[in-house]
Design brief:
By secondary structure, the chain is mainly alpha-helical. The chain has helices spanning 2-48, 50-62, 97-107, 112-119, 123-134, 139-154, and strands at residues 72-75, 84-88. It has 2 domains: 1-109, XkdW-like (Phenylalanyl-tRNA Synthetase, Chain B, domain 1), CATH 3.30.56; 111-162.
């Protein structure tokens, strides 16, 4: 009789644990699906609306590591209305309309190659760093590589906004 009660309690405990685990998984799945729908909507909006793409590029100029649909949401009230930043999830302060306009005006009409070229370290500096790296001192090469990576993130190819 004692074994039957212990077995029954153990069985109830496992049923409750499995039920809790299934509930947790289902809630997590719903949240993930909602986030994927949101990200897909942002991707579609940015790729089909030039004004939304410009807004995204302006945000990316101010915060290169932030991405539409993840760190902020671009919204518009109707197909004819101007897009705006509806939600801001970043730790940095949300940019003002003036900051966004200034950021976009820096890149408007310019190709990403022009913008990158203006900020890349000179070819001479890169060659000098490569020479020193071949001689065993790679510190300058690493520094220049980090600068180049920062510029590439700041000005993504073809004005794309991720």
């Amino acid at each position: 009789m004692v074994i039957d009660k212990i077995m029954l309690l153990t069985l109830v405990f496992f049923v409750i644990m499995i039920g809790g685990w299934l509930f947790f998984v289902s809630q997590n799945t719903k949240a993930t699906q909602q986030k994927l729908r949101q990200l897909s909507h942002q991707h579609t909006l940015v790729n089909t609306d030039e004004r939304a793409r410009q807004l995204c590029i302006a945000v990316h100029q101010l915060h290169p590591l932030m991405h539409a649909g993840v760190d902020f949401l671009i919204q518009r009230d109707s197909p004819d209305s101007a897009p705006y930043i509806g939600e801001w999830y970043g730790q940095d302060p949300k940019p003002t309309p003036e900051q966004l306009q200034a950021a976009f005006s820096r890149v408007a009409g310019k190709d990403f190659m022009e913008l990158r070229k203006a900020e890349y370290p000179s070819v001479g500096d890169q060659l000098d760093a490569a020479y020193k790296a071949r001689r065993g001192d790679g510190s300058e090469q690493l520094h220049l590589d980090n600068l180049i990576t920062d510029v590439k993130m700041k000005y993504p190819k073809s004005g794309a906004c991720d």
